[in-house]
Design goal:
The chain has about 325 residues and is an alpha/beta fold. It is built from eleven helices and 16 strands.
């Protein structure tokens, strides 16, 4: 028996329950892991609320990231043994491979031996955010040292990862945040420019910073009305990568700006990297290299106990955090 987190109906954080279940032995090409920490993601809150791309099947489990110790391995598993410290690449389906639990089984291709300098909490905060930012900025946009890149929701875990990756390749990150409350923290973190969206004119500031050539790359999880000033400030041939759609307001399609500048507005999911073995291996090499040099460093906003999962989800949805929300098991 092991404790896991499940929910029996959609709703707010209060629907989450800690329950005991039998955990089967790992199947072929699976690794069984004794979880030490969980990294929380907005996708899990969306699944819990019933608004995710997957539909929960009750009682539903959830979770995309974790770190822990290998308990045992299934038939056909090579490269891992009991006692290995590992972290987990997010699966395509969290319904099939949920991480919120004390003991979980996971497909071996999503298991990574993490650098020893990371704590369990840091290891659980690596893969979703860095894979998301890497896939958009490096794999698709081919970000270079000559580029300005706009990063909205800059104090989110993906936003902070994107700042680090932009700095790693020598690009200039322009970070957009809602208010000036986190402005100094973002500058201290490495943002070259910070724009408080509710307090400044976004288009004017972007034009002032990037100049007449504009911004080639935009990474945005929000959508909504922000599309118009973002695209207006973009360079001809630029690319806007949308991966979240968090805005409750409609997202306009800036047709004439897109036509005039031959812009690419592209939907993006981290699954593009995760499901492609070649791309995933390249991403792992890039990210592990950055972790080892210290150019990439996971930022933990707050750590909760396993028994505080409801409080952790409330904090996740508060938008108060600077970095990743983590649960210690």
């Amino acid at each position: 028996m092991a404790r896991v987190i499940r929910f029996h109906k959609t709703g707010g954080p209060e629907v989450l329950r800690i329950e005991d279940i039998d955990v089967p032995a790992p199947g072929p090409n699976e690794v069984q892991i004794r979880v030490k920490a969980l990294g929380l993601n907005r996708a899990e809150a969306l699944l819990r609320a019933g608004t995710y791309i997957e539909t929960p099947i009750f009682p539903s489990r959830l979770g995309l990231e974790a770190a822990g110790i290998v308990e045992t391995v299934g038939a056909g598993v090579k490269g891992f043994k009991a006692g290995d410290g590992v972290s987990l690449v997010p699966p395509i389906s969290m319904l099939r491979w949920p991480t919120y639990g004390e003991l979980i089984n996971f497909p071996v291709e999503h298991v990574v031996k993490h650098p020893e300098m990371l704590s369990w909490e840091e290891a659980a905060a690596v893969w979703m955010k860095y894979l998301t930012a890497y896939g958009a900025l490096i794999d698709i946009a081919k970000l270079t040292s000559k580029d300005f890149v706009v990063i909205t929701a800059g104090s989110s875990s993906v936003g902070l990862a994107a700042i680090q990756i932009a700095k790693m390749v020598g690009a200039t990150p322009i970070v957009v945040t809602r208010t000036s409350a986190k402005k100094q923290a973002l500058i201290d973190f490495g943002a070259v420019h910070v724009i408080a969206q509710s307090e400044e004119d976004l288009l004017s500031r972007l034009t002032e910073i990037a100049g007449p050539n504009g911004v080639r790359v935009v990474l945005d999880p929000i959508g909504g009305p922000i599309f118009e000033p973002l695209t207006a400030a973009m360079a001809p041939g630029g690319i806007l990568l949308e991966f979240g759609g968090l805005s409750p307001e409609p997202t306009p399609f800036p047709l004439f700006t897109v036509l005039a500048k031959t812009l690419t507005l592209r939907g993006y999911l981290v699954h593009e990297i995760v499901r492609d073995p070649v791309k995933l291996e390249a991403a792992k090499t890039f990210i592990l290299g950055g972790l080892k040099t210290g150019e990439l460093k996971p930022v933990i906003a707050k750590t909760f106990a396993f028994e505080q999962i409801v409080e952790a989800h409330r904090y996740l949805e508060s938008n108060e955090q600077f970095g990743k929300v983590v649960v210690s098991v």
